[in-house]
Design brief:
- The protein is α/β, with parallel strands linked by helices and 751 residues long.
- The protein has five domains: 49 residues; 116 residues, EIF_2_alpha (Alpha-Beta Plaits, 2-Layer Sandwich), CATH 3.30.70; 168 residues, no CATH class; 54 residues; 253 residues, Rossmann fold, CATH 3.40.50.300.
- The protein is 53% helix and 11% strand.
- The protein has 29 helices and 14 strands.
- An eight-stranded mixed sheet has the order 7-14-13-8-12-9-11-10, sandwiched between helices.
- The longest helix is centred in the middle third of the chain and has 37 residues.
- It starts with 34 loop residues before the first helix and ends with a helix.
Length: 751
C-alpha cells in the first residue's frame, strides 16, 4: 500500500516512542508536549563538542586576559561646591539661582594648571616625583548630586593613587580660595609694596640724621632744644622756626609727591554689568508688591484682584531669577581713591609751603633791620636738623597708616574661603577595581555558553543531514521503519542477526520486520527492494539481516543481489558469484540452478553473477519482469539488494515492479534534499516507498534515547534471551488472517 495513503502502524514498545519506528505521522491536532524540549536536547547532545570548545575558547581567553592585566586601584576624594545665591531685593522671599557651575569646576580640576599645582604641593612626598601628564592621565571627575565632586584616580600603585587624589583635592581647594581672594590679594600686594617704599624712606632719613649729627657733633638731645636756641623776632616767632617750618612743609610736600608717583590713578575692580531689563523687572516687582499691599488692605486674600496680583508677582519673580542667573560680572577700571586723596594732600601741601615761605620772607625782612640776637649760633644747621626730624615723623606716620590698612585687608582676605569644601579624603584602596576575576570570568562563562549555543544552532541550521524520524517526516514526508545501532566492525557483523540473535542490532531488524507487517496488513508484501542514497550507507547489510530475521520467523525468504555494479552478497555468505542473476537474465542458467542455500534456515540467495556492461537495461527488461513473478512463486518474500538510487538509475528502474522500497539512510550523512529527490524519482517511476531505515545510529543519539532501555532489557535478562528463537513464527504471507489477532500479540510473538 502506498505510504502517502496509509501511514505505518506500530505495536509494542516501538509504537510508544514519538517519532520512533512504525509510529507514522501524528494527527495535526495533537503534539507531544516534550517534542520541543526533546529537539533542544538533541541539538545539545549532537553539538556538545562545538559548545564545549566555544565555551572553553571564550572562557580561557578571558582568563588569560584577566590574569595578564595589571591590577588597577581607585582612590576617591570628595569636594563640596557651595552654591552661592544672589538675593532678590524688596521681595517677600529671598531666592536666587546658583552662581557656580559644577561642569565648569570639573574642567578646573582637570586643567593643567591644577595638575602643576598638585605636583608642587606633592613635593617630596611622591617618589618618583609626580608629573602633570601622569596626574591628568589617571584623573577622572564625576558629579554627584546635588553639589559633590568625586575626584577619582586610577593607578597600579594604591598608595600613589590615594596621594594623587588628595593633592589634586588640595590644589583645587587652594585655587578656588585664591580665586575668591583675588581682589583682596591685589590690594594687599599694593599696600605691601607701598609699605616697603615708605620703610626705605624712613631708613634713608634716619641715616641722613645720623650723618648730620655726626658731622656737626650734635648730641641726640640737641634736636629737642633746637627751637629754643634759635633767634626770635619781636612777634614771638623766631626766624629759625619759620624757616624750619618752610623746610618741613617742603619735605612733606616732596614725600607726598613721591608717594603720588608710585600710586596708579586708576585700578580694576569686578562689578556686575548693568542690565536695564533686570532693573526694569525689579522695578516692576516693587510696584507689584506695593499694589498687592494696597489690594490686601481693601479686599480679602481670596478676592480675584488679590489672586491676580499674586500670580503676577510669581511670574515677575521667576523672570527676575532667570535674568539674575544670566547676569554677567565684568572688570571695570575706576579711579583709585588713594590716588585722589594723595592729590588733595599734595595741593594742600603746596598751599602750606607757599604760606610758610611768605611768612618766612616777611620775618626775614623784619629781622634784617635788627642785629643778630644770639651770635655764635648757626641757625641753618638747626633748621636742617629740624627738617630731617620732621620728614622722619611724616614717614613714620605714613608707614603706620599703610600698616593699619594692610592689617585690615589681611583680615578681609582671611574671611574669604571660596566655594570649595573638603568632604572626604582618599584612602589607600585594598582591592583593585579592575580587572575583577570573578565578575569577568562569570561574564565570560555566560558569553561562552551563549556563543556555544549560538554556534550549535547555526551548525544545526546549516546541517541539512537527516538525523531522526521527526526530521525525516517533516522534511521529506517519508516515515521511519526503525533504526539500526552502529557497530564497530561491519565485516564481522555482516550477518549479525544470525550470529548474535540477542543483540540490539538484531532486535532492531525484528522491529523493522514487525513495522513492515503492520504497515501492509491489507496488502501483504511479496517483493521489496533495499536501496540507499549513496555508497557505504549499509543497504547490503540491511538487506542481509532483514532477510535473516524473516527466515528466522519461518518465512521462506529469497535474497537477490540486484547490485550488478558492485555486488557484495556472495562475499557476505561465502558463496560463488556465478551462476547468478545476470546468467539467469541472459538465459545461460535456469532460475532454480542459480538459487543457493545458506547457513540460515528458510533463507536462500541468488548472487549477482558476472558484472554486465548494461545493468539498467537488464533490470528493465521483460525477462526481469517474468523472473520476478517466478521468484514470487518459489519464495514467500523476495528481497532485492539494489545499487544506490542517486548514483545510478538501477533502483529507480526496478522500483515499479516491487511491492515496496526500503530506503537505508546513514544518520546525519544524507541530506533531506537527496532523500526528497529519491522520492520524486521513485514516484515519477510509479514506485512505492514503504519507509526508511536509519543505519549507524550512535548510542544516545537524539531521537533514539530509548536505545539504552532497549539494550538493558535484552542484555540484562540472560534466562529469557533465547525465548524469541523458540516461539512459533508467523509467515509474512499469513498477515492477512486478521489485524486484531496480530495486534493482540507482542513483538516476539510476531516473529
Amino acid at each position: 500500500m502506498d505510504l502517502d495513503n496509509t501511514p505505518a502502524q506500530g505495536n509494542g514498545h516501538s509504537s510508544t516512542v514519538p517519532g520512533g519506528p512504525g509510529s507514522g505521522p501524528q494527527p495535526a491536532a495533537w503534539q507531544d508536549p516534550s517534542a520541543a524540549l526533546h529537539e533542544y536536547v538533541r541539538i545539545l547532545v549532537n553539538r556538545r563538542w562545538s559548545i564545549l570548545l566555544c565555551f572553553l575558547g571564550v572562557f580561557l581567553s578571558a582568563a588569560v586576559y584577566v590574569y595578564s592585566q595589571p591590577r588597577i586601584y581607585r582612590a576617591t576624594a570628595k569636594v563640596q561646591v557651595v552654591q552661592t545665591v544672589q538675593p532678590i531685593l524688596l521681595s517677600e522671599q529671598r531666592s536666587g539661582a546658583p552662581q557656580v557651575s559644577l561642569s565648569t569646576q570639573v574642567k578646573y580640576i582637570r586643567s593643567s594648571l591644577t595638575a602643576r599645582t598638585a605636583c608642587e604641593m606633592a613635593g617630596k612626598k611622591a617618589v618618583p616625583p609626580l608629573t602633570p601628564e601622569e596626574i591628568r592621565h589617571a584623573l577622572s571627575v564625576t558629579i554627584e548630586e546635588p553639589d559633590i565632586l568625586a575626584i577619582s584616580v586610577e593607578h597600579t600603585d594604591p598608595e600613589r593613587a590615594a596621594l594623587i587624589a588628595n593633592v589634586v583635592q588640595d590644589a583645587y581647594i587652594h585655587q578656588n580660595t585664591a580665586l575668591a581672594r583675588a581682589e583682596t590679594t591685589s590690594a594687599k600686594q599694593f599696600l605691601e609694596t607701598q609699605m616697603e617704599v615708605v620703610k626705605q624712606d624712613m631708613q634713608r632719613i634716619e641715616a641722613q640724621i645720623r650723618r648730620f649729627k655726626a658731622r656737626h657733633n650734635i648730641p641726640d638731645s640737641a634736636s629737642q632744644v633746637a627751637t629754643t636756641t634759635a633767634p626770635t623776632s619781636g612777634s614771638g616767632v623766631s626766624l629759625v622756626e619759620m624757616q624750619m617750618a618752610v623746610l618741613a612743609a617742603e619735605a612733606e610736600l616732596d614725600g607726598l609727591r613721591r608717594l603720588l608717583k608710585s600710586v596708579p590713578p586708576t585700578h580694576r575692580v569686578r562689578r556686575p554689568v548693568e542690565d536695564p531689563v533686570l532693573e526694569g523687572l525689579r522695578q516692576a516687582l516693587v510696584e507689584a508688591e506695593v499694589e498687592l499691599a494696597r489690594a490686601q488692605s481693601r479686599y480679602a486674600d481670596t478676592h480675584p484682584r488679590v489672586l491676580a496680583i499674586k500670580d503676577e508677582l510669581e511670574r515677575l519673580r521667576g523672570l527676575v531669577q532667570e535674568r539674575a542667573a544670566q547676569a554677567k560680572v565684568a572688570e571695570v577700571e575706576e579711579p583709585n581713591p588713594l590716588y585722589a586723596a594723595l592729590v588733595e594732600r599734595v595741593r594742600e601741601g603746596e598751599i602750606q609751603v607757599e604760606v610758610q615761605r611768605a611768612r618766612a620772607e616777611a620775618l626775614a625782612k623784619a629781622e634784617a633791620k635788627k642785629a643778630p640776637s644770639t651770635p655764635g649760633k648757626d641757625p641753618k644747621a638747626f633748621m636742617e636738623l629740624v627738617a630731617l626730624e620732621r620728614a622722619k615723623e611724616i614717614a613714620e606716620r605714613t608707614y603706620g597708616q599703610i600698616l593699619e590698612q594692610l592689617q585690615q585687608v589681611r583680615l578681609n582676605e582671611a574671611q574669604q574661603q571660596g566655594t570649595a569644601r573638603r568632604v572626604d579624603i582618599a584612602q589607600v584602596p585594598e582591592q583593585p577595581v579592575h580587572p575583577t576575576p570573578r565578575r569577568t570570568l562569570a561574564i565570560a562563562a555566560l558569553l561562552g555558553l551563549v556563543a556555544g549555543l549560538s554556534l550549535a544552532l547555526l551548525q544545526e541550521l546549516a546541517d541539512t543531514g537527516v538525523r531522526d524520524p521527526d526530521q525525516l517526516l517533516m522534511r521529506t514526508g517519508i516515515s521511519s521503519l526503525g533504526f539500526i545501532p552502529a557497530t564497530r566492525d561491519t565485516a564481522r557483523t555482516a550477518k549479525i542477526a544470525a550470529r548474535s540473535p540477542r543483540s540490539p542490532v538484531t532486535e532492531s531488524f525484528r522491529t523493522i520486520r514487525s513495522n513492515l507487517k503492520f504497515a501492509h496488513l491489507d496488502s501483504p508484501l511479496h517483493t521489496m527492494m533495499v536501496t540507499s542514497a549513496g555508497v557505504g550507507e549499509g543497504k547490503s547489510f540491511t538487506a542481509t539481516n532483514l532477510a535473516i530475521v524473516l527466515a528466522q520467523a519461518g518465512v521462506n525468504t529469497l535474497l537477490v543481489d540486484a547490485d550488478l555494479r558492485r555486488p557484495t552478497l556472495h562475499r557476505i555468505f561465502g558463496i560463488p558469484r556465478t551462476p547468478g542473476l545476470t546468467t539467469v537474465l541472459t538465459g545461460e542458467t535456469p532460475l532454480r540452478e542459480a538459487i543457493q542455500a545458506t547457513d540460515v534456515a528458510n533463507l536462500y540467495i541468488i548472487p549477482s553473477g558476472p558484472v554486465p556492461p548494461n545493468p539498467a537495461e537488464l533490470l528493465e527488461s521483460k525477462r526481469m519482469r517474468q523472473l520476478i513473478e517466478e521468484m514470487k512463486e518459489i519464495a514467500e518474500i523476495v528481497i532485492f539488494d539494489t545499487p544506490p538510487a542517486l548514483v545510478v538509475t538501477d533502483a529507480v528502474v526496478l522500483s515499479p515492479r516491487m511491492d515496496a522500497m526500503i530506503l537505508v539512510i546513514e544518520q546525519g550523512r544524507v541530506t533531506s534534499r537527496a532523500i526528497a529527490e529519491i522520492r520524486r524519482m521513485v514516484e515519477q517511476a510509479r514506485g512505492k516507498i514503504a519507509g526508511a531505515v536509519f543505519n549507524k545510529v550512535k548510542s544516545g543519539a537524539s531521537g533514539y534515547y530509548y536505545y539504552h532501555y532497549y539494550r538493558y532489557y535484552y542484555y540484562g535478562d540472560h534466562n529469557e534471551g533465547d525465548a524469541q528463537q523458540r516461539r512459533p513464527a508467523m509467515p509474512l504471507t499469513a498477515l492477512d488472517h486478521g489485524r486484531n489477532q496480530s495486534q493482540s500479540k507482542g513483538p516476539d510473538e510476531e516473529a
